[in-house]
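To assess whether the prediction recovers the assembly geometry, we first specified each molecular entity separately, as shown.
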Amino acid sequence: MSLLDKLDQVAQRRDRFLAFGRDPFNIRMDRIISATEAIIEGREVILVGTNNYLGLTFEPNTIDAAVSAIKNEGTGTTGSRIANGTYSGHQALEQEIADFLGRRSAMVFSTGYQANLGVLAGLAGPKDTILLDADSHASIYDGCHLSGARLFRFRHNSPADLDKRLTRLEGDTSGKLVVVEGIYSMLGDQAPLDEFVDVKRRHGAELLVDEAHSLGVFGDHGRGVCESAGVEKDVDYVVGTFSKSIGAVGGFGASDHPEFERLRYTSRPYMFTASSSPSSIATAMATLGQIKARPELRRQLWDNARSLYGGLTGLGLAIFAEASPIIAVKMPNEDSAVFMWNALLEAGVYVNLALPPGTPDGSCLLRCSLSAAHTPQQVAKVCGVFEQCLDALNAWQAEQSAAE
Ligand SMILES: Cc1ncc(COP(=O)(O)O)c(C=O)c1O
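The predicted structure of the complete assembly is given in tokenized form:
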């Protein structure tokens, strides 16, 4: 008996995937051509599943800044933020993020995952209570567990359910933290932040918003859903990542709280890991400058999002939520999702395949994410490929029923 025997079911599921063509969770990008194209299996593919919302991964000035950081400061810091891993770039970036968000302070972590772990487990402890949206990202769940706090999940995007749970806690004197995301990573739906703010205020709780998918994408200045909803002053903590619109690796937490900086001495995911490399820090710094200077990128992104949304709904596909840069096509079951995903890739379109348990309500999704760098021709091509693959799916399903 091996410890790995318990993963037999995982191996069986992988074998089922392979029968459709390839392992969807082990795809290799042989060559990245641009922010929206790659070579996969010798084929030129349009990338519609990369979270590269602003398409800024190949900006010449940003690349120069990253290269120069490597040349001047080396490839890695080889140390934690609390030892030898805080360079002037880390602190300058923290100041830049704080200024950009209009917050008193910001802390840079090595990934967005660690930012959630570090902020949540830094803020809340075993004597506190965290109330989190049921559809929260794994990093939020893991941060909550790491904190040791008492946890309550409220119904996804339901201020009424949050209200009910906080009402039940009336008289309980523990510190209370409510956690939501600006935009949800799988379905692309938006949190009703104004209503959540109202509920948390009435109950004296604090509110953390993860803007991983909304930073650079929402708000007139790209500050996220907190900005577009007009609630920035009522949101106590913001978490974000550099791995999406920023096009690097790293994450941050930011707040107006005068004592937020205490987390630097208590947050294990901040203290017990090496700090971000100089090139990631330089990339994030340069890209934040682009986000501020080029609001037209957001307009292009939204044009592309609306165009793909219109095209896919026009094909009769079931799509969760309103048009947003994340468009999740719901497939009726796992087989049809895996079939479609393979067919799309073979026809030159890469999207994310998202399956339970990683999805809300056990849904099987073809998750598309748009970029400002997509051209109208690429978006039109993606719609055409979806149409062609739907025909192939229908033919395959007809064959399956005939064989039964
Ligand atoms: C909502 C949310 N928070 C945090 C993260 C983690 O970000 P990172 O990739 O920087 O670890 C993600 C990544 O997918 C996410 O979707």
